[in-house]
Design brief:
With 178 residues, the chain is α+β, with helices and mostly antiparallel strands. Helix content is 27%, strand content 35%. β4 and β5 form a beta hairpin. The longest helix is centred in the C-terminal third of the chain and has 15 residues.
Length: 178
Amino acid sequence: MQPSSSQALPHLVRLKDGTEVLIRKAEPEDFRILYLMFNSFSAETMFRRFLMSNTRLEAGDVQEMLRLEDTNVTSLIAVLHSDGKEQAVGEARYVTDSAGRVAEAAVVIADHLQNRGLGTVLFSDLIAEGRRQGLKTMFAYFDVDNKAIIRVGQKVGFKLAPVEGRPDYSMIKAEIGL
């Protein structure tokens, strides 16, 4: 499976294990399936994405975080279709600065589909979307203990900066010029 940044959205991707997933832009109507996905995460995934140990998010917290109607937010969703229903299995997003030139990015994959290439696809598509939108730079913060996301970030072109220490964790800032 190759990163899919050259493919227009929406598009289907086949993961390493053969699972087919639809990648498309997230819409406000996706709140329910994203809410369900976020609340299905293990404590480790929850911490690595949201830097909190809660394993459940309130609907209001998810709504505030998603900001799907905000023009500074671009969100891509990975959807698995099963029995006529959609299930969110990944989300990648960036939030731009007020000038729309620099964006902070993040990606999260449902626990049961981690390590199958979906993070690489979502980050590649997010970078491609940023280029289409005229961004100049994208950056992300990675937990230093999350070796998988660091590898994915480097694979799609992010360059790592020095570690920024915090009392309870350490983060790596990664950046890519678009």
